[in-house]
Structures are given as structure tokens and as C-alpha cells.
Specification:
The chain is α+β, with helices and mostly antiparallel strands. The protein folds into 4 domains: 105 residues, Winged helix-like DNA-binding domain superfamily/Winged helix DNA-binding domain (Arc Repressor Mutant, subunit A); 151 residues, no CATH class; 103 residues, no CATH class; 57 residues, Alpha-Beta Plaits (2-Layer Sandwich). 44% of the residues lie in helices and 14% in strands. A 4-stranded antiparallel sheet has the order 1-14-16-15, covered by helices on one side. A 4-stranded antiparallel sheet has the order 10-11-13-12, with no helix packed on it. Keywords: DNA damage, DNA repair, Nucleus, Transcription, Transcription regulation.
Length: 488
């Protein structure tokens, strides 16, 4: 009988793990039909889903919203030209995936579509009124210390920059303006794998975290809140209530205050978390009013107006400010502490002036970023996205390590890739070794079975040795027992 032994073996290079950014459709698509039906009990969620549907899908919904019987699928198909059959099929798939409508049959057996009763009822409430009023819409006396839009924008970005500073600042819980990050936000970053905790207890940014920093603010906030919603059950909060309130805030008016008096205990807790993340402003925890910020209003709005408050934010992701020389010197024309900290993830910073930071790409600085999970392609992509316009006018040939023409010097691109390749020569895969076969036929039989179920990692026919994955060991072991007894 072969002798299985625990082992580690080398295989090909690891595949990069990319940040999975879901929009509202992709998020709801992963929910079960039962969960979707519970979510559609909230009119705000129904309205938000309707707003995010493709235009053709919205037309289908609004045309059958007031029809009290299933509509033949052939009739729905006739509403559009055959030239747009592809768009029609896509809209049909979206409505089906989200459980907005479902297949039905009418007398005669013709296939038809009918809206989900729950969705239909609550979308009518959202569009026409009725139902229970939103608790946050209670009447309030005028605020003697009312906050204007400019204040709310500054507050929102101050809180959000604090989260970003923490990610690039090696667990510095304070941003440059003294704002501190909440422990709750840290737990979300760890849960989302945007950061990871090292053996010494410190937190470092991951490759997904680096990709997260490259997103625009609206996408960052939405992804962050999706990760929060994944932990609702652990916090004793109801997913439907949290998502409903989040969408209520997205339909609110910027600069207007809303009441917190009618909120349940769970929603008051949720409100405090939103306050920590910068989605709402509240002077005190027990204050009876709060102000939604632009971060909350923009959360799912495709046509949202981004927050641009001052020169620092105007220089954020889209501003091109980096110059790179062939001697590996990097010049960043910015006074943004966040952008400088981000640059410091993979460069060795040398000098800091009011509007200029000088650094250098070194083997140690790049390898430090690689150890944190950042890839060479991400570093190169970041430098290209933020390259100064003067670099864009210089055309370099495609480097040996990169497939497209880059505005960066080829020596820089190649060297960053080479530093990464130094670390990627081997990876380790845990597995189980089988050897000491009594006959060549036994070895070939077991090897072919392991290969057929895709658990074979390595084999050597001459020495009658094979390695299977740890997860496939049980299946291979059971097959061998059956084979030894002559039952296969």
C-alpha cells in the first residue's frame, strides 16, 4: 500500500488576488431569493433598485406595474425592436436575477412575466406615497447651529481621509488633522482584507487595499459599506433595516437636518457607525438631529457630484503630479499628506518641501511593498496614472517586462518587475506524498484517478511517487481502499 505523507511542494506562480468591487446589482445578485424578498419589504430599497436598473428594464417595470395579471412574454418582447434583442435579453436577465419579476403562466400555457408581489406593492408606495412615513422625516424645530454644505463636505472628507491615512500610515490612528479612526472602521478594514494583522500585532495594507486606494471616493465608500453590511448579523443588526436607512440617506437633501427620535435602538447604533465613517454629521451622540453628508447621498448614484473642497482634494486621484527619472528618483508635486503617504508605500522618501516630495525607488522599498501584498503591476499602474503631463509627451518603447507602451522609463518598469520576480521563484502548496507502491500498475491506477479529479500536484513514474493536494487526500485514500479490496 502506498505511504501517504504530509508535504509541501512547489507549483507555478501565484495568481494575483484582485479587489472585487460590486455594484448594487452584483451585490443583490448574490443574495438568496428569500433574502431579496425580505429586503423588498422596504420601499426605499425597491426605489433604489428601480433607479439602478438599465433603462429598458425600468421601462418594463413601469409598464406592468399597474397590470393586475401576468403579461405574456411575447407581448413584452414586442415592445422593442429586434435590432435591440441583445439589450432586451440583458434587461430580462437583470430583472430575473434580482427577483423583481418572475416567470408565470396564463390560461393556455403561454409563458408570461409578473412582478414580485412584495416588490410591486412597495415600489408603488415609494413612487405614489402611502405606507409608514420614514422615521427620520419627523418634524424638527430650526437648528440654532445649522451646518452648511461646505462644512458637511469638509467634515465628511476629514473623516474619510482618516480611514485612508490609517491604511497607508502603518496603523497610525490619527490623520494629519488630528482626527482618529474608530475601532469599528479598523475591524471593517480587516474583515474586507484591505489590511491584515501581522504576527507582531501590527496592521499592514494588502494588495486589495492598495487597489482600494486607487478607486474614486464614491466607489471606496460603497465597497466599505458593503463589507460593513456583511457583518450586520454579528452586530445584532438587521440587514434590511440597515440597507433601507442607507438608501433613505441617499434620497435625502444635502444641508438639511433630519430627526433621529423615531429610530430603533439598532438604527441608532448604525447611525453612530455612519457618523464615525463620515456619512452623517451629528454634534453629539444624544442629539436629536443629524445631517447626511455627500458621501451618503452619492453612495449609489451613478451621476453623483464628487466632493472637491480644496487644493488637496483637487489633487487627489486624477491629478497628475509624479515625475520619474531613469536614476530611480521620484518627484511628487503635491502637498497632500495622503498622496505622500501612499507614495511612501513603495519608495524611500528623501525630502519633503511645501509642494514637492522627493523619493527614490530602491530594491528594499519595492520589496517591502511586495511583502505587503502590493504587486509590481499595481506600482507601475499607479505611477502611470499619476505621471506628470511632461512624461506623457515622451514615447518609450514597450519594455521587456510590460506588454504595452508606458510613459515611464523602460529601465524603471523592467527593474520593478525584476525585483518582483526575485520573490516569485517558488511558492509552497501543502500536499500529501504517496510512495512505496508494490507495483507499477497500482501507481498508474492511483495516479490516473488523482489526475481525473484534478488533485494531482506532481508525479514521478520512475520512482513511483506522487503528490496530491491536501483537500483531495481523502478522496484518493477512499479510492485506494476500494481498489485494494477489488471493488473498483
Amino acid at each position: 500500500m502506498p505511504d501517504p505523507k504530509s508535504s509541501k511542494t512547489t507549483t507555478g506562480l501565484p495568481k494575483a488576488s484582485n479587489l472585487e468591487c460590486k455594484d448594487l446589482y452584483e451585490y443583490l445578485q448574490t443574495r438568496s431569493p428569500d433574502v431579496l424578498d425580505r429586503l423588498y419589504n422596504y420601499a426605499t430599497i425597491c426605489l433604489a433598485v428601480y433607479r439602478e436598473l438599465p433603462e429598458i428594464a425600468r421601462q418594463f417595470v413601469i409598464r406592468i406595474l399597474f397590470v393586475e395579471q401576468p403579461v405574456p412574454q411575447a407581448v413584452v418582447a414586442s415592445w422593442g425592436s429586434q435590432l435591440y434583442a441583445k439589450e432586451h435579453a440583458a434587461a430580462t436577465a437583470v430583472l430575473t436575477d434580482l427577483g423583481v419579476w418572475r416567470a408565470a403562466a396564463i390560461p393556455g400555457g403561454l409563458p408570461a412575466w409578473e412582478l414580485s408581489p412584495t416588490y410591486k406593492k412597495n415600489l408603488k408606495i415609494a413612487l405614489l406615497g402611502g405606507g409608514k412615513p420614514w422615521s427620520m422625516s419627523n418634524a424638527l424645530e430650526s437648528d440654532s447651529k445649522a451646518r452648511d454644505v461646505s462644512f458637511l463636505d469638509n467634515y465628511a472628507m476629514s473623516r474619510w481621509r482618516c480611514v485612508l491615512h490609517y491604511m497607508v500610515g502603518a496603523c497610525n490612528t490619527k490623520a494629519s488633522d488630528g482626527e482618529t479612526i474608530s475601532p469599528d472602521a479598523v475591524r471593517i478594514l480587516l474583515h474586507a482584507n484591505l489590511m491584515k494583522r501581522e504576527d507582531d500585532g501590527s496592521c499592514v495594507i494588502t494588495k486589495q487595499g492598495f487597489q482600494f486606494l486607487l478607486l474614486d471616493t464614491q466607489a471606496q465608500v460603497w465597497h466599505f459599506m458593503l463589507q460593513y453590511l456583511d457583518t450586520c448579523h454579528q452586530r445584532g443588526l438587521d440587514l434590511g433595516e440597515c440597507l433601507s436607512m442607507l438608501f433613505q440617506l441617499s434620497f435625502s437633501t444635502l444641508g438639511r437636518d433630519y430627526s433621529s427620535e423615531g429610530l430603533s435602538a439598532g438604527m441608532l447604533t448604525f447611525l453612530q457607525h455612519l457618523r464615525e465613517f463620515g456619512l452623517v454629521y451629528q454634534r453629539k451622540r444624544k442629539a436629536g438631529r443629524f445631517y447626511p453628508t455627500r458621501l451618503a447621498l452619492n453612495i449609489t448614484n451613478k451621476d453623483a457630484v464628487p466632493i472637491v473642497m480644496n487644493e488637496e482634494d483637487a489633487q487627489a486621484p486624477g491629478k497628475r503630479h509624479i515625475v520619474i527619472e531613469t536614476n530611480y528618483r521620484v518627484y511628487a508635486y503635491t502637498d497632500s499628506n495622503l498622496l505622500v503617504a501612499l507614495l511612501g508605500l513603495f519608495t524611500e522618501l528623501l525630502y519633503r518641501f511645501p509642494n514637492l516630495t522627493v523619493g527614490v525607488l530602491t530594491r528594499d522599498s519595492v520589496r517591502s511593498a511586495l511583502r505587503g501584498g502590493i504587486t509590481a503591476e499595481q506600482i507601475i499602474s499607479y505611477l502611470e496614472q499619476h505621471a506628470h503631463p511632461c512624461l506623457l509627451n515622451v514615447v518609450h518603447p514597450a519594455s521587456s517586462g510590460f506588454r504595452h507602451r508606458s510613459c515611464l522609463p523602460p529601465t524603471i518598469v523592467d527593474q520593478i518587475k525584476l525585483w518582483e520576480n526575485e520573490r516569485n521563484r517558488f511558492i509552497y502548496t501543502e500536499g500529501v506524498v504517496y510512495n512505496q507502491f508494490l507495483s507499477q500498475a497500482d501507481f498508474i491506477t492511483l495516479r490516473d484517478y488523482a489526475q481525473s479529479i484534478s488533485v494531482l500536484v506532481w508525479q514521478n513514474e520512475r520512482t513511483r511517487t506522487m503528490v496530491v493536494t491536501k483537500s483531495g487526500h481523502d478522496d484518493v485514500k477512499k479510492f485506494w481502499k476500494r481498489y485494494s479490496k477489488g471493488t473498483t
